[in-house]
Each structure stands twice: as C-alpha cells, then as structure tokens.
Write a structure and sequence with these properties.
The protein is built from 10 helices and no strands. By secondary structure, it is mainly alpha-helical. The radius of gyration is 17 Å and the shape is globular. 5-(aminomethyl)-2-methylpyrimidin-4-amine binds next to helix 4, helix 7 and helix 10. This is Aminopyrimidine aminohydrolase.
C-alpha cells in the first residue's frame, strides 16, 4: 500500500462531508454557535485531550524508529501547550463540567483499547483522524468564512487551520503511511476499520456537544 492515507481519506470522504454539514460546524463558521454549546464542547474536549495525550505518548513508545517516538511525544506535549492554552481562553469558569459525556468516554476508551491491545499500525490509524479531520475542518472554515474579523471562535479556527498544525498532521500521515507499506492486506483492513471508526467518533463528538449529551440514567 503506497499511500494508505490517500486511499482511506477518499473512502471516508462522506464522513468528512457530514462533519462539514453538521450544525455545530456550520454555526461555528458563522460565529452563531451558542456559547453554552461551545462551552460544553470545550469542557468535553479538555477531558478528551487529557487522555489523548497519554495515548499519543503510548503510540510513541511503541514506535521502533526513535524519530517517530520523538514526534508522538512532541505531539503529546504540544497538546499541553497549544490546545490546553486555547481551552483556557474559552473555558467559562462558572460552568466547568468534570464528567465525560457518553461519547467522550466512548472515544477515549476506543482509542485506549486500540493502542493498548492492538497492533501499532491499528493504533496509528485510530489516532490519525484526530489530526487530519481537525486540519481539514480548520482549513475548510478558513477558506469559506466571511467573518474572520468578528467570529468569536476565530482563535479555535486559526489553531486548526494554521501552518503549525498542518506540519504536525503531515508528519503523522507520513509515519502512518510508512508503517502501512509494510503491512499485510489483513492488517490494512484493520487499519481502515480503525480510521473509519475514529472518523465517525469525531462526528459523534461534535454531535454530542451540539445536543449537550447527558447520561440516560
Ligand atoms: C475530539 C477531538 N479530536 C481532535 C482534536 C484535535 N487534536 C481535538 N481537539 N478534539
């Protein structure tokens, strides 16, 4: 498989289109998304990222090439400096939520299972949508919005549409492609499933925030 990512990105394009069409993203782009919904999202994202960075570190530890290990360790610490700082700008101290929503719990648990109990290749494929989808959505909003000067969510948009994030995403794709080249067709199938599931979980994460998802009991 010479360019695994290109193929899976094409095969999961409909999920990306559904994310772009979601009211959360449409309203974020228009700047009309309710503060309450965005606050719910940011709280859940803070919970998600505090686990995701440990998952990235674990992926890094499993890589055989020390440059790849370094990349994932840097990506994990990058979350602490860049994304946590972004969250601090938006977090409303009056309404901090400490409990993970069902979808947040599901996404974290899924990635943790893929990283701790499956092959490195499946783990890489599972964590990749977290990079690629945010870049694609950031770029999409930057290219299509008409309100850069007065969108209350512009800092969020600039973080994921920016060059620094694009470089990190490029590296993550290259590393995953490199492992995919050496993988058997059976393992590629499993990588595809992991990437597709994590992409669906990205859609579900935004959807759960838009609906301020609560535990049923
Ligand atoms: C749920 C989720 N997925 C991805 C990202 C981008 N690192 C994020 N902040 N949150």
């Amino acid at each position: 498989m010479s360019n695994w990512y290109k193929a899976i990105n094409q095969n999961t394009a409909r999920i990306l289109e559904q994310i772009k069409a979601h009211d959360f993203i449409k309203e974020l782009m228009a700047g009309t998304l309710s503060k309450e919904i965005f606050n719910f999202y940011i709280n859940q994202d803070a919970i998600y990222l505090s686990e995701y960075k440990k998952i990235l570190a674990q992926i890094g530890v499993k890589c055989s090439d020390e440059n790849d290990t370094q990349f994932f360790l840097n990506a994990a610490t990058g979350i602490i400096t860049v994304e946590n700082a972004l969250h601090q700008n938006f977090l409303n101290e009056k309404c901090i939520i400490n409990e993970a929503s069902v979808t947040c719990e599901l996404y974290i648990s899924y990635l943790s299972r893929m990283t701790h109990t499956k092959s490195l290749e499946e783990g890489l494929a599972a964590v990749l949508p977290c990079f690629t989808i945010y870049q694609q959505i950031g770029d999409y909003i930057l290219a299509n919005q008409t309100n850069k000067d007065n969108n209350p969510y512009q800092d969020w948009i600039n973080t994921y549409g920016g060059e620094a994030f694009a470089n990190s995403v490029k590296n993550a794709i290259e590393i995953t492609n490199k492992y995919a080249i050496k993988s058997s067709p059976e393992r590629i199938d499993k990588m595809n499933t992991a990437f597709e599931k994590a992409s669906k979980l990205e859609w579900m994460f935004w959807d759960s925030a838009y609906n301020k998802e609560s535990w049923k009991i």
